[in-house]
Amino acid sequence: MAKKVVATLKKEGGVKYAKVIKAVKTATGAYSFKEEIVLQEDVQAILKA
C-alpha cells in the first residue's frame, strides 16, 4: 500500500518542504524519474538545474 507523503511534509510553524519529481534522460535515450524532497524556497533552483 502506498503511503501519503504529502501529509508528513506539512507541519504548523515549521519549515515547508516540497516533493520534486524530475524526468531525467539516460544515455540509452530512456527516461527515469528522480525524486527529491527540498525546501519550498529552493524548488525553482532545483528545476532549472
From TrEMBL:
InterPro entries: DUF4295
Name the UniProt record assigns to this protein: DUF4295 family protein
Organism: Flectobacillus longus
